[in-house]
Write a structure and sequence with these properties.
Length: about 400
C-alpha cells in the first residue's frame, strides 16, 4: 500500500454499469475513471463485459468479467463467479482504495476485495432504489426487503457518498444512520459550437418552431407522462412547438403510443440513444427549454449538460434537479402536476429572448467541471487511506 500521500494512488472503481454508457451511474463511473486517470492516478474500472470498442485511448485500465443481457433492459448483468480469468486479473492489482458505485454484483466484488486486502472502501449512493425495486416487483414488501439489504451493503463501507442533499435525505429515509458525505457530480464544461445546433436540426428534421427537449431514459418513472400531458394542453392552445425525447428505455413503444393518443404525433420526435456526442450537444444547444420533471432522479447530469449549452431547464420544485435552480433566474420551477408544468411552459414560451437570458445565467451558475469534483474526491480518498494505515 502507498504510505506517502505524495505518491499516486491505485484506485479500483467498481460499477455494474459502464461503457457503452446507458445510464447516469455508468456515466459517473466512467468520468471518475477518466478524470482521475488524467490527473495522474492509477485507475482500474471493474465492470461487466460489454462491447466497448477500442480501449487503448483511455487513461485507465479495465478489468471486466463475463456478463449476459438482462431481458427488457439496456443492461448486461455480470457473473464474475463464472469467469476464472477475472479473479486472477483482479488479484494482480494492489489497490490503495476501492470505490463502489453500485450496491449489486460489482459492488459486492469491491467489498470482498477491500475486506480481503484491508483497504478502505467508498460507497456511492446514486439512485432511489426502493422505487426501482417496487417498479420491478410491484410489491411494497419486496421493495422494503431489497432496500434493507442495501442498508447492510452501505454499512460495510468506510464512507458513503451521495450526489445531492436530496439523495442523502432519501438514504436517511431508508434507515441509514452513519455519516453521509455529499460529493456532487461534475461534467465536461466547454463551449458548444453553434454549428452543432445546425447539424442536429438538419439530422432530426426540425424546423424553426420552439423546441422542448428531454434527455434520459425512456421510462415512465422519469415522469414522462407529465411532459406529454402538459404538451397536449399547449397544443390545444394552438402553440407551435416540437417535443424531442432523446434516449432509450423499456417504455419507448408505450410513450410513443401515448403521444399518438394525445394527438402529439406531428409535434413529437424520439431520437433513440444518441451515440454521436455532437448531435447530443447540438440538441441541447438548439432547444429553447429543457424539460425534466423527474422526481426519481437523485441528481441530474442532463440539467447541467443543458445549462452548459446555455439552455435553461424546467424542473419540479424541491426535487433533486431543483437544487441548482433559481426560479426565473437560471431556470424554472413547477409543481408536480400537469397543469402547473403546462402553465410554466406556456408563460415561458411567450418570450424566447428571456429564455436565452436564463440560458446564459444557467451556463454561468450551474456547470461544475469533473476536474474540480475529482480534487474533492482525491482529498477524501487520501484521508481514508491515511486513517486506514493508522489502524493497521
Amino acid at each position: 500500500m502507498n504510505t506517502s500521500m505524495n505518491k499516486k494512488m491505485k484506485i479500483g472503481q467498481f460499477s455494474d454499469s459502464f461503457l457503452p454508457i446507458v445510464d447516469g451511474v455508468g456515466r459517473v463511473a466512467f468520468n471518475y475513471c477518466n478524470t482521475l486517470g488524467k490527473k495522474g492516478q492509477e485507475v482500474v474500472a471493474i465492470c461487466p463485459m460489454e462491447d466497448m470498442g477500442y480501449r487503448g485511448n483511455f487513461p485507465f485500465e479495465i478489468i471486466d468479467y463475463y456478463s449476459a443481457t438482462v431481458p427488457t433492459t439496456a443492461y448486461n448483468a455480470g457473473v464474475p463467479d463464472l469467469d476464472t480469468h477475472f479473479k486472477k486479473r483482479l488479484e494482480m492489482n494492489k489497490f490503495d482504495i476501492v470505490h463502489v458505485h453500485t450496491p449489486f454484483i460489482a459492488g459486492f466484488e469491491g467489498l470482498k476485495y477491500a475486506e480481503k486486502h484491508h483497504v478502505p472502501v467508498v460507497g456511492s449512493f446514486h439512485s432511489k432504489y426502493y422505487d426501482d425495486f417496487y417498479q420491478i416487483t410491484k410489491s411494497k414488501h419486496l421493495a422494503k426487503i431489497g432496500t434493507d439489504a442495501l442498508l447492510k451493503f452501505y454499512d460495510h463501507c468506510d464512507e458513503v457518498w451521495t450526489v445531492s442533499k436530496n439523495s442523502a435525505d432519501t438514504l436517511r429515509s431508508y434507515g441509514f444512520k452513519k455519516e453521509i458525505i455529499v460529493i456532487e457530480n461534475g461534467m465536461e464544461v466547454k463551449d458548444i459550437d453553434e454549428s452543432l445546433a445546425v447539424k442536429a436540426k438538419k439530422h432530426y428534421q426540425l424546423n424553426d418552431e420552439i423546441v422542448l427537449l428531454y434527455v434520459g431514459q425512456i421510462n415512465w418513472k422519469k415522469n414522462l407522462e407529465r411532459i406529454l400531458n402538459a404538451c397536449a394542453l399547449l397544443k390545444k392552445d394552438k402553440i407551435k412547438f416540437q417535443l424531442v425525447f432523446a434516449g432509450k428505455g423499456p417504455h419507448e413503444k408505450e410513450v410513443k403510443k401515448r403521444a399518438q393518443d394525445l394527438n402529439l404525433s406531428d409535434n413529437f420526435t424520439m431520437t433513440g440513444h444518441i451515440l454521436d456526442e455532437e448531435l447530443l450537444y447540438g440538441l441541447y444547444s438548439l432547444a429553447d427549454l429543457f424539460v425534466f420533471p423527474s422526481q426519481y432522479d437523485t441528481y441530474s447530469m442532463v440539467v447541467r449538460e443543458a445549462a452548459n449549452a446555455k439552455t435553461a431547464s424546467v424542473v419540479v420544485k424541491d426535487s433533486a434537479p431543483a437544487e441548482c435552480i433559481e426560479d426565473g433566474i437560471n431556470g424554472l420551477l413547477c409543481l408536480d402536476n400537469d397543469l402547473s408544468l403546462y402553465k410554466v411552459l406556456k408563460d415561458a414560451l411567450k418570450d424566447r429572448d428571456k429564455l436565452k437570458e436564463m440560458g446564459i445565467k444557467a451556463k454561468e451558475s450551474i456547470p461544475v467541471s469533473w476536474d474540480v469534483i475529482m480534487d474533492q474526491a482525491l482529498e477524501r480518498y487520501k484521508n481514508l487511506i491515511k486513517n486506514n494505515s493508522k489502524k493497521a
